[in-house]
Amino acid sequence: MLSFDEKQFTEISEDFFNITKLKINLYDANFNLVCAPATHAPFCSVVRKNQELTKKCIECDRYGLGECKRRNKLIIYKCHMGLTEACVPITQDNVVIGYLMLGQTLEECDRESIERIVSDLPSKYDKEQLRDALSLMKPLSNRSLLSAARIMEMCACYLWIKNIVSVQQSTLQNNILTFINQDLSSDELTVEGLCRRFNISRSLLYSISKKTLGMGISEYVRKCRIEAAKEMLMRGNVPIYRIASDCGFSSPSYFTKVFCEQVGCLPKEYPQKYKDLPL
Prior knowledge:
This protein is α+β, with helices and mostly antiparallel strands. Helix content is 57%, strand content 14%. The strands form two sheets. A five-stranded antiparallel beta sheet has the order 3-2-6-5-4, with helices on both faces. The chain has a two-stranded antiparallel sheet with strand order 1-7.
């Protein structure tokens, strides 16, 4: 889970704006907006009055963040309305923990193309209001925009170095392990489910698992389920189907298959085998 000092981040965002006249927001590793001291530019405020265009704006944000994640570096791209946006990853121990996004920027060369996009919109949109809002935006040169994006990269490094944005891995790993062991039958005990539950990226979950457990999280969950099954088998009066269900296996046959692979015997053979083990 992303941890950040909202007051300090807001101050840095304001400093960035004072220098560049551009605004930045903070996203977590799963592309969720977690701190937004920036307000939308006039043009984007009008765009987002429409539900269909708002949906496209959100899709553009996720596209940009997705490309930033895939390339693991600063990216600059055009939104669906022709404005320029940029985002950069924030990393901790070489793992992406969040993103900074700079959005809603008008480049000098793009005004005419944006006006064409507005003109091509269906008649149900308020084109005059969009044109008026666009006229309020101060254009930037490509050089100025690139400089601002690079300053944003520096801000991303500064946020981590000063511990303004971080992931508290020790607390997070304890929460993950507690969650796994309190309900081994939960459908959320997958990589995707745990990432969604704790609002973290796959890479961060993998990093925590390897450092803490020495294995992948799926392997750890399977190990916990087998150990719980062993305990239930030793009671001697719990049916296999119940053990499979309570320990999170999709069926008794799948449980038997995994148990044989991990332990080397059938579940029903385990109690006797355990008793025969030397002390």
